[in-house]
Amino acid sequence: MAIACPQTESHIALRNQLLQNALRPEPLPFKIQSEYPIVLGEKGTEFSHCLFHDDRIVAHANLWPRDLMDSLGQRVAKVGLIGNVATDESYRGQGFMKQLFQSLESKAILADLEALILWSDLSLFYQKLGFQSLSQEWHHQFDLRHRRGAGNFRLIPSDEIHLVDPTTLLAIRTSTRYTLHRSPNEFLEMLHIPNLDLCLEYGIHNEVIAYCITGKGYDMIGVIHEWGAPSIDHLVNMIRFVQESFKFPEIILLSPGTLAKSRRKQLDARATKTVKGPMGLVKLLKPSKSIELALDQCFIWGLDSI
């Protein structure tokens, strides 16, 4: 048994096949690596950790080091995102994933990471590995019972994504107390993920004043997981536009648990249903009060999750 990053084209092909079989069993018009272009792309093999057994890759997980930033743009912690966790069906129940996670934790400590973060419905399994609930997020559900107000909205075709200025979107994105750093180049690369739809609102001078992102590959269909708008009225009108464009009977908006109370009250008044729950799972590697506070109040946008 050995744990290593994929080094050859054949290893990468075996990894992709494992992930496709384990995480995307139904046929899709795109490959799973296109859903995670940074950590599963050709230049991201250092983020892939494969457990080899009997000359096969039997388990895999990504470990992606990221900087956790405060609202002033100052780094407060180095964290590792874990994702694309999969075990070959023939090798499940033999403790391979536990061994892989022990290796990831050792690598994270050597890399001076202060916490590990992941997203999964298998909370009981990860609790046994030392993970606990991370922060809070709100799910606001909207239906089509209300009419849309005025606004100059446009869905950006995939062949025009390269014309979008990611710096502008980062500047108008809703402020959070703590979130992950994302460079403009990373943002632009993520915007090419399949089944992702970007909606922009333009002001009177044709400048971008609001945006939202719906969908992300296989996940988050009918979910707005990133957004920025000058007011809740602008945001809700944009939500209505997206609903009407895709004929979604319902749509979910994700918002930070630390969103200003005044804005949350406005969202609650316009939504048909609002639910609060944990954003993800976290394991502290270097516990401290400052890191615990930052993680408790952080919000990770959907594009950054893996």
The Rg value, from CA coordinates, equals: 20 Å
Report low-confidence residues grouped into runs of 5 or more: none
CATH homologous superfamily annotation of the largest domain? Gcn5-related N-acetyltransferase (GNAT)
Provide a count of the helices.
Answer: 9
Task: Profile the largest sheet.
Answer: 13 strands, mixed
> Quick check: average pLDDT?
95
Which architecture of the largest domain per CATH?
3-Layer(aba) Sandwich
GO molecular function: acyltransferase activity, transferring groups other than amino-acyl groups
Domain N-acetyltransferase: 2-149
Organism: Pseudobacteriovorax antillogorgiicola
InterPro entries: Acyl_CoA_acyltransferase, GNAT_dom
What brief labels describe this structure?
306 residues, alpha+beta, Aminopeptidase, 13-stranded mixed beta sheet
Would you give an account of this structure?
By secondary structure, the protein is α+β, with helices and mostly antiparallel strands. The chain folds into two domains: 2-135, Aminopeptidase (3-Layer(aba) Sandwich), CATH 3.40.630.30; 137-279, Gcn5-related N-acetyltransferase (GNAT) (Aminopeptidase, 3-Layer(aba) Sandwich), CATH 3.40.630. Helix content is 28%, strand content 34%. The chain contains nine helices and 13 strands. Strands 1, 2, 3, 4, 5, 6, 7, 8, 9, 10, 11, 12 and 13 form a 13-stranded mixed beta sheet that branches. A hairpin with a 2-residue loop joins strand 2 (48-53) and strand 3 (56-70). The longest helix is centred in the N-terminal third of the chain and has 15 residues, at 9-23. It is globular. 35% of the residues are buried. Keywords: Transferase. InterPro entries: Acyl_CoA_acyltransferase, GNAT_dom. It comes from Pseudobacteriovorax antillogorgiicola.
